[in-house]
Structures are given as structure tokens and as C-alpha cells.
Input
Amino acid sequence: MTAATACGGGDEEQTTMGPGASLKCASSGKNAFATYGADAFVAVNKAIFAEVTAELTANGQTNLGDSFSRVTDFATFEGRLAAFLVFAYGGPTSITYTDGKTYEGVQDMRAAHAGMNITSAQYDYFVANIIVPALTKSGVPMGDVSSCFAPLVVDASVKASMVGQ
Output
């Protein structure tokens, strides 16, 4: 049984592509979703939440700020992040997550981060100390982290859509 499934699959052509869909993994020459699939993205997503929990337990809000303390529905937050990651890296526009609910991957990042006041330092810390370890602990080799995951999260326009909102 798969942990996440693509919606609108079959022979339908996807007309909306995420910003990282054209990035090619060093290991396969394909985008991250084509290389790893939905189940791997779910594993990475769960690892991200485990890393955030460990960070907040160890250091409180020192490095990540209070962004995560504002989340009131973690199940929905987790499902929406998984859907965004799947879409952003070349997957379908929506997924059915492990909770059985369908989440849309196409999201307005400025609106999603409005009022969080994420700083550049917090964003950079999140990428380097939460996302990268979540990827590598989930079995993604550093060559693929560098080639098909990192370019999106270090892109200035992507960062600007989340920082200072």
C-alpha cells in the first residue's frame, strides 16, 4: 500500500509544472519526483517534521523562530507541505496523503507564509539544518541533494516568497 498517491493520474497530461520540475538528479537524469516517487517524498516530509520537532525540543525558537508555534492543525500542515513538495519537484498537482485527505500542491507561498515573519537567517537554517538532513537521512545522496533539490530552495525568488511575509 502506498503512503501517498497521485490524483488525476492515468493518461491525463499535467499542464502545471512545479518550479523544480526541470531540475535533474545526478543519479538518474530525471526530476526528483520521477527519481524518487511519492512514497519517498512522504518519508522526507515526515523526516522534516521529525527534524523540526528535535530542533524545537533542543533549542526552542532560537533558530527557527515562532513559525511552527503558530500551526494549529499539524495533520493538515503536514499534508499541505507534502503536496507542495511533490508538486514543486515534478509530481502531480495534488496528492492523497497518509491521512486519506487530498491536498493541493499548487500553493501561494507568500500567502502561506503571511504573518510568520520568517527571517533570512531562519530560512537558511531551516534549509541547511532541517531539509538537508531530512533528505540524507531518507536516503537521498548528496549528489542529488545538490543537483535536484537544493537549487529550488536556494533560489532567491523562492526564498523571497517565504522570508519577511
